[in-house]
Structure formats: C-alpha cells, structure tokens
Amino acid sequence: MAAPAPSPISDPLRNLAAKIYIELICRNVVVIDNAAQIKSNPESLAKISFKLAEAFQRVGVEVKAPSLPKNQEFDMKVADISGWNAAKP
C-alpha cells in the first residue's frame, strides 16, 4: 500500500493572486466565432496579480492593527490570581 501524498502547503498570497489572475483573465478574453483571444499578455497579468495580492494583504494587516491586542507581553503565569478574591484589609 502506497503512502498518501503529502498535502501541498497552502500559500495565502498565492491563492489570492490566483483568484485575482482568474478575474483579470476573464475580463481580458474576447471570444470571436470559435476562437478565444486574450487582449493582454498573460504573464503581465500574473505579475500584476501577485503585486495586487501583496498590496491587499499588507493593507489588511494595517487595517486590522488597531483591533489587535495591545498587551501581548502579559504573562498569565506571573499574575497572582489567587489574590483576587482575598479579603482586603
């Protein structure tokens, strides 16, 4: 019995670029009679797709930054939780 093939690692940037590329190709294909013609160079569209995907992810990080936790250095193990319910003198 052969071992199952390892699943390919998912690259979010590549996946987004592929979706953008498909959209760009769909918008640049002209069908005449029984032939399809691409108005733009497919390689250029691929390069643009990766640049757009990278910009989209970079801006996404910037937009999410204000809502991320601010105190990431806080260590729960250091906090004295047992003292929270202690009677105050």
Keywords:
mainly alpha, single chain, two-stranded antiparallel sheet, 2 strands, elongated, 89 residues
What would you note in describing this structure?
This protein is mainly alpha-helical and about 90 residues long. It is built from two helices and two strands; from the N terminus they run αββα. The chain has helices spanning about 10-30, 40-65, and strands at about 30, 35-40. The protein has a two-stranded antiparallel ribbon with strand order 1-2. The mean pLDDT is about 85.
Shape: elongated
Radius of gyration: 25 Å
The low-confidence parts are none
- The rounded distance between the terminal residues' Cα atoms is 71 Å
| Strand ordering within the main sheet | 1-2
What is the number of beta strands? Answer: 2
| SSE series | HEEH
Number of helices: 2
Question: How is this structure best summarized?
Answer:
The chain is mainly alpha-helical and 89 residues long.
Give the secondary structure arrangement, pairings included:
Blueprint: H1 12-28, E1 29-32, E2 35-38, H2 42-64
